[in-house]
Amino acid sequence: MLVCCKNIIIIHIYIMSVNEWRISVNGRNVTPLADIAGNSYICTMKSLEHKTGLIFDLFYCIIFLPLLVGVGPTRHWFDSYPLFAVIVIAYLYLCYFTTRLINLPKLILSRKYLRLAVFAVAFVVITYLLTIYPLPDVDFVIPSMSEYQTRVRNYNRTISVWFMSTVALSYSLVVVFVKELYNRMLLQSIAENQRQKAELAVFKAQISPHFLFNTLNSLYSLVIGTSRKAEDAFIKFVEILKYTYVTIDYDYVALAEEISYIQSYIDLQMIRLSEHTSVEWSHSTDNDNTMIPPMIFLTFVENAFKYGASTTGDSTIFIKLVVKEGVLIFETENPVLRHKQEFRKDMPVGLDNCRNRLAALFPGRHKLVTSEENSLFKVKLTLNLN
Description:
Layout: H1 2-15, E1 23-25, E2 28-30, H2 33-71, H3 74-80, H4 82-102, H5 104-109, H6 113-131, H7 146-205, H8 209-223, H9 228-247, E3 253-254, H10 255-272, E4 277-285, E5 291-292, H11 298-308, E6 315-324, E7 327-335, H12 340-361, E8 366-373, E9 376-384
């Protein structure tokens, strides 16, 4: 009976590994058709985004800017002040592509107001310097009118420079805002795709919640008294399974619940692992009621055990979670005990899914860093929860 219970636990733990939505055919991992279709759709959307941006750039360079220069007095500058005309046109190109590069909407959403202020000051200063750029003297037909015509010339030059700079900046802002809106639509599409795959993975594991839990209760009643270790494993497994069923319909859960889930997962893993593997798990929060997406750390914890647990030599897995002043930092560190090639082949699958999910849920508000050094694999995730 204990062997049967152990097999049930192992099977369900494998099913619950939602970060690896793959099937096995003749011992080989095969990507499901749903994943292929989803990835193809995402690649198509990204390709379309790139082509759209290129069209906007070409339109500005070939059509928009020449028209902008041609309708104003700038066309006369090529005759009287060719160097100044070239400088102004170069500045208009620079203004457009700089705005495209720094992505002002992203700076605003990321609350990087200092960079935003630096850009605004630079735009105003450079534009102003162009309005006071010394122009060569021109011999006027009526000498007495030279001073008046000089003032008119400078006034027209100032108005023209500010007008063209503002129009160029406005066009670039429109392009950037459209691109950012498209990115957000793409991220929402990716998030929905990931959510559907996660739900599908869980639903496939669902025979019937009532039947499953009733069966577990029956098995638990048979295990009681036979082995304390088996009882603990059942309790932890039921906690994990219940949490998975409950949170599948929620976009966010309390941080305290996620911490309890991680603790149950670690306890369940430690029951089956040998004494050679130890876990250093710590967590510190200033607000347990902070809301985060459910099972956001599961992939990192699973990978730490998958590649860091040892049955022969000593190994230590480090897991740390800190939340302070609206900033969450989650870290894992584990030795890479499996073959390097297998590690590099399997690891990116789960991490790519995590990156896509984080990009959709925390655009511009997260940082995921992974590194491998001296046979130690480290993960550091930083989330801005504000």
